[in-house]
């Protein structure tokens, strides 16, 4: 079976290759800290063995819950913010197709509580009018303002529609085992719940019920996702640098960072990966951006953004490197038709698959950007399915943890996120924050 591949040959000319040889030892030392739990934030390493340790019973319970929610709903609303929704949204988008048609079922997954937009949530209520819907509310702390407000609004709407008893059957809460307002409410109302373990942080939680339940609700195979992740977990344990894609990615991005390549743009020529880009940005941004350090994670979908950001990438400030996720095989085939009149002068492409043109755009872009002094890392997966998305998820999670350690920061906390909350609470005169 083919697996995720990494190609760093277009990044090596931008670093000192002699020095890079030291990364073999360096990355293993950092990896050892993850293994023996002596690094920063080592009480948040529950995600590392998750693809292996998650129990068959829990997977069955998740699948059964998803089946029941699908039975009673046309729409499932996922309420959460940051790590509590980005992973599932990324996978669902990558697998659903650009117009949702490919899923071949009627269930629609929508998201709420990722913003405080009055219009968004008003429009959502309008959209949900006269529809059978259910809610999965996800918050590890159980107290995050954005999802808490969205949940309050939606719960009231459900209760008005279905009454309290029926509503309780339409709500699943994923939260801490014992702490937080959401846990208290879930216990009081007897909602079905799943636990976010103490040692798994939000942005590393996609392979726990946080990501798995919404993905299963969307009709996708979570066992395959976990099996792909498990295979990457095994590759990431290889002590041979050349056979370990995680070691290579974490090392090359750190080496580039030391050469002042301080912005990484994750790109793809596949439009379905746009939300995956968002998940990746959160993972790396929240994990690395601290103590005035870190690579700034940016993203683009090509060729779309070649007509917006392309100019900057080619000729702007030279502090950028690019990581492209290349998908070998398309799901469907579509050939460019022949046209006798050839007014558009496209007959040189007649009968060629559209993806052939897309792949040439990909190769041409990589070459142009490398020529323009933008180092390139290429990650290839055979196709967009649960298995390879599982590989990608684990690949980035482990790389991010190692990369954070190389940088000398704790990749599992996010102290900087508190600052805006305090200011907002003071302005809102939240009890306890009035005088801060
Ligand atoms: O990665 C993280 O830990 C954060 O992005 C959280 O997921 C996010 O802040 C939401 O937190 P909570 O699940 O407690 O509502």
Explain the overall architecture.
The chain has 436 residues and is α/β, with parallel strands linked by helices. The protein has two domains: 5-40 and 225-407, Glucose-6-phosphate isomerase like protein, domain 1 (Rossmann fold), CATH 3.40.50.10490; 50-223, Glucose-6-phosphate isomerase like protein, domain 1 (Rossmann fold, 3-Layer(aba) Sandwich), CATH 3.40.50. Helix content is 47%, strand content 14%. It contains 16 helices and ten strands. It has helices at 17-20, 23-36, 50-53, 56-72, 86-96, 118-128, 145-169, 181-189, 209-217, 222-235, 245-258, 274-288, 310-315, 354-371, 386-407, 418-428, and strands at 5-7, 75-79, 108-112, 133-139, 171-175, 192-195, 263-268, 296-301, 320-329, 376-383. Helix 5 runs parallel beside helix 9 (209-217), helix 5 packs antiparallel against helix 12 (274-288) and helix 10 crosses helix 15. The model has no long low-confidence stretch (mean pLDDT 96). 5-phosphoarabinonic acid is lined by residues 81-84, 139-141, 144, 147, 201-203, 286, 414.
Rg from alpha-carbon coordinates: 23 Å
Q: End-to-end distance, in Å?
A: 58 Å
Kindly report the name of the CATH homologous superfamily of the largest domain.
Glucose-6-phosphate isomerase like protein, domain 1
* Residue fraction in strands: 5-15%
Total beta-strand segments:
10
Number of helices: 16
Spatial ordering of strands, largest sheet: 1-10-9-7-8
Please give the share of residues in helix.
Answer: 40-55%
- Domain module tally: 2
């Amino acid at each position: 079976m083919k697996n995720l591949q990494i190609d760093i040959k277009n990044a090596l000319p931008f670093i000192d290759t002699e020095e890079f040889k030291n990364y073999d030892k360096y990355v293993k030392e950092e990896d050892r800290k993850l293994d023996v739990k002596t690094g920063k934030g080592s009480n948040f390493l529950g995600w590392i063995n998750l693809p292996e340790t998650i129990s068959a019973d829990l997977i069955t319970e998740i699948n059964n819950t998803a089946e029941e929610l699908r039975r009673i709903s046309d729409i499932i609303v996922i309420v959460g913010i940051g790590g509590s929704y980005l992973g599932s949204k990324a996978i669902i988008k990558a697998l659903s197709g650009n117009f949702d048609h490919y899923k071949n079922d009627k269930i629609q997954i929508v998201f709420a509580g990722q913003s405080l937009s009055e219009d968004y949530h008003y429009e959502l209520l309008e959209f949900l009018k006269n529809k059978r819907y259910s809610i999965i509310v996800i918050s590890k702390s159980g107290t995050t303002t954005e999802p808490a407000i969205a949940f309050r609004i939606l719960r009231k709407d459900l209760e008005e529609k279905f009454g309290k008893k029926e509503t309780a059957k339409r709500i699943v809460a994923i939260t801490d085992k014992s702490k937080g307002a959401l846990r208290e409410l879930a216990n009081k109302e007897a909602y079905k719940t799943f636990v976010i373990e103490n040692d798994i942080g939000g942005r590393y939680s996609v392979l726990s019920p946080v990501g798995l339940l919404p993905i299963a609700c969307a009709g996708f195979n979570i066992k395959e996702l976990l099996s792909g992740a498990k295979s990457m977990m095994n590759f990431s344990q290889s002590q041979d640098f050349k056979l370990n894609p995680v070691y290579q990615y974490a090392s090359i991005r750190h080496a580039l960072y030391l050469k002042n390549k301080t912005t990484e743009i994750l790109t793809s020529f596949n439009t379905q990966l746009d939300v995956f880009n968002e998940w990746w940005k959160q993972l790396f941004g929240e994990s690395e951006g601290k103590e005035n350090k870190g690579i700034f994670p940016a993203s683009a979908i090509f060729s779309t953004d070649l007509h917006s950001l392309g100019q900057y990438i080619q000729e702007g400030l030279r502090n950028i490197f690019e990581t492209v996720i290349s998908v070998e095989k398309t799901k469907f085939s579509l050939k460019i038709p022949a046209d006798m009149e050839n007014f558009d002068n496209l007959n040189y492409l007649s009968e060629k698959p559209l993806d052939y043109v897309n792949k040439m755009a990909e190769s041409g872009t990589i070459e142009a950007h490398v020529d323009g002094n933008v180092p390139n890392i290429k990650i290839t997966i055979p196709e967009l399915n649960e298995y390879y998305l599982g590989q990608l998820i684990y690949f980035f999670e482990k790389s991010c943890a190692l990369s954070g350690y190389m940088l000398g920061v704790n990749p599992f906390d996010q102290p900087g996120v508190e600052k805006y909350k305090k200011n907002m609470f003071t302005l809102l005169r939240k009890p306890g924050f009035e005088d801060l």
